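ok so i was messing around last nite and threw this chain in just to see what happens. nothing serious, just curious
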Amino acid sequence: MPVPSETEFVSYQQWGLDFFAEAVSEDRILGAVNNIAGQPIDFGPMGVGPGKIAKVRAYGEIGAASAHRIEGAQISYRVELPVSLTFEVNLQVETHTFHAELLVPLTLTAQAVEGVKIFITIDPPRSSEIEVKVQAEGIRATIMQRVVNIEGELKRFVAKYVARETSKPHIEEARVIDVSAAIDKAWGSIAPKPAKSTVTDDFAEALEAEIRENEDTLLGPIEG
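result:
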């Protein structure tokens, strides 16, 4: 392989910046986040209110995320995760149904960690940052929506849920990228493999060729 010209060399600092941008690209961020896309959500029925008489059930799914790079010195992305939910509030006498579309924003930032590692920090959203659109089925459900502030409760719940989930130990572990270990693994796959023939085999072959080429000189005249 030819040696790169001087114009192809970059500083260690520039190389590090380029590496981070490539290692934590938009496609890779989306690939990781979209592992949960399409997953169903189904919980309840759960008793709420005085005496837990009312029963609430929610079901839906998580959609595919979108992401874009945030300008700045750090490698950061704003990720927006759409969630579709249907709520059923059973008041014993009647059941009210609500359809909610949520857009949950997350900020992911790549941080350099000692030991040649990358840690992805996740800033969970504040409730005010979560976008929610709720559509009620029927006039009575619409009135109930205004009374109990379904949108506000959804924002509060989702913000608290995301903050709790992203701080769990298995999530914390998954956010660590051990670059050193990856390099060791890659280096092992590209390191030169032992040749099938040994140095002594090559020497013996070369010596035999030399003897045959100069056998007259080495043996001298053979008298009959």
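not much to say yet. DSSP finds eight helices and eight strands in the chain.
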